[in-house]
Design brief:
By secondary structure, the protein is α+β, with helices and mostly antiparallel strands. It contains five helices and five strands; from the N terminus they run αβββαββααα.
């Protein structure tokens, strides 16, 4: 069997709990009482609960199941005996795909400020807040593109005019309303006075 053969969590959550064998992969959100794992793979904002038989599981393996760790779980999809979810997975085998140091991993199971999440942009999409924002943004962008594509429009990325001059981009072309060959007419006296008046500082009162 190929390594990446798995069921997405969003599909598992809506499946009928008929004791079917299932394989899922994801990142650990929480691990409570050495028994309950909240797992998420990014396919949905909701987690699926993994029930671990901790009495028959290697203690060294249990210590590696920390927040942020990536794991592969195979087991039976069964009706959940707890509230809050329809199904859960009774784990038969757990494989650690990637460890996570609990002392260094920044997304711990607690509330984080938006200022803090800006500093870890590569991980913020794993939070419920940004997960919801990005999904709404995706839906709006998809609907906009579908609307215009269905009416014969072509999506084109036009050059962006900006005042920034990073990496010599400003040397490529110049944006102006006047002729660039030096044939621009001399400004009139009124225009010159108006410009000087606009740029002049307001007189200071004695």
């Amino acid at each position: 069997m190929a390594f990446n053969i798995r069921t997405k969590i969003k599909d598992a959550l809506v499946s009928d709990p008929t004791n079917q064998h299932i394989i899922i992969m994801g990142w650990v959100r929480t691990f409570r009482s050495n028994r309950f794992i909240a797992l998420n793979d990014g396919s949905t904002i909701n987690n699926i609960q993994i029930v671990v038989d901790f009495e028959n599981t290697d203690e060294a393996l249990l210590k590696r199941i920390t927040t942020g760790a990536c794991i592969k779980v195979s087991g039976q999809l069964v009706p959940s005996v707890g509230s809050g979810q329809k199904v859960e997975i009774k784990a038969e085998a757990i494989e650690i795909l990637g460890d996570s140091d609990p002392e260094k991993f920044p997304l711990q199971p607690k509330k984080h400020s938006l200022e803090f999440l800006r500093e870890i942009a590569h991980l913020r999409m794993r939070t419920n807040t940004f997960g919801a924002v990005f999904r709404v943004r995706n839906t709006l962008a998809s609907a906009t593109h579908e609307f215009f594509q269905g009416r014969g429009f072509v999506y084109w990325n036009s050059p962006i005019i900006t005042a920034s001059d990073a990496e010599g981009a400003g040397e490529m072309f110049r944006v102006t309303t006047l002729p660039i060959d030096g044939s621009a007419p001399a400004p009139t006296m009124a225009a010159s006075i108006s410009a000087r008046t606009f740029l002049a500082k307001a007189p200071t009162s004695p």
